[in-house]
Sequence to fold (55 residues):
Amino acid sequence: MQVVLSQWAIKVAWEALLTPFTYLVINRLKRAEGIDIYDTDTNFSPFARQATEAR
Fold:
């Protein structure tokens, strides 16, 4: 059980340390490519009757 907990702690710490660098890389890529996509016309409601029903 100690191995499982220590591996989990190492994974969580590693991800927490690298998160700021990940955001830097992603933001630089978005800026360089000029692409930042948002689904503004998509209705993600599970109760929508049709896929094109957006409001």
